[in-house]
């Protein structure tokens, strides 16, 4: 009986000690990488993208943000045009890609992503008090969801 208890205590001790050492340094490194990244906001490219995307037939409303070399565009499509979402997204992508081929272009027609990207766009316009790291990480999360 005493042997079983001592083995159980040793097992718990090794599990607790092993898990703590492995995962702590990884979290610290990933946090440092995010804060060291430089974030560049390009409002002119975003405005041009909004104009080009808005010119596509069936697009009712557009929001866009350009951070670093990523350009994200979210669209709302009108009425019956919702039946042709994929071709409309492709047309918007092609029209926006013509602005600058160096940018990675992301296009979505998802309502939730539209609202999130609209918030990012508003935050980039009033960038004074907002930490850029927060905007950059949210922007990357939106692009990942697209």
Task: Describe the 3D structure.
With about 150 residues, the protein is of the alpha+beta class. The protein has 2 domains: about 1-35; about 45-145, Cation efflux protein, cytoplasmic domain (Alpha-Beta Plaits, 2-Layer Sandwich). The protein has helices at about 1-35, 45-55, 85-95, 110-125, 130-145; strands spanning about 60-65, 70-75, 105-110. The chain has a 3-stranded mixed sheet, sandwiched between helices. α2 (about 45-55) packs across α3 and α4 (about 110-125) runs antiparallel to α5 (about 130-145). The termini are far apart. The longest helix is centred in the first third of the chain and has 35 residues, at about 1-35.
Topology:
Elements: H1 2-36, H2 43-54, E1 59-67, E2 70-77, H3 85-97, E3 104-108, H4 111-125, H5 132-145
Parallel strand pairs: 2-3
Antiparallel strand pairs: 1-2
Helix pairs in contact: 2-3, 4-5
Descriptive terms for the model:
alpha+beta, Alpha-Beta Plaits, three-stranded mixed sheet, 3 strands, 15% strand
């Amino acid at each position: 009986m005493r042997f079983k208890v001592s083995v159980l205590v040793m097992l718990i001790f090794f599990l607790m000690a092993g898990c703590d050492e492995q995962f702590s340094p990884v979290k610290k490194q990933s946090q440092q990488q995010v804060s060291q990244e430089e974030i560049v906001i390009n409002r002119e490219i975003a405005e041009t993208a909004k104009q080009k995307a808005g010119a596509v037939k069936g697009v009712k409303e557009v929001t866009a943000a350009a951070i670093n070399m990523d350009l994200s565009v979210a669209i709302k499509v009108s009425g019956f045009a919702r039946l042709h979402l994929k071709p409309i997204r492709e047309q918007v992508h092609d029209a926006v890609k013509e602005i600058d081929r160096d940018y990675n272009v992301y296009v979505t027609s998802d309502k939730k992503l539209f609202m999130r990207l609209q918030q990012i766009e508003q935050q980039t316009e009033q960038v004074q008090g907002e930490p850029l790291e927060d905007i950059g990480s949210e922007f990357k999360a939106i692009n990942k969801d697209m």
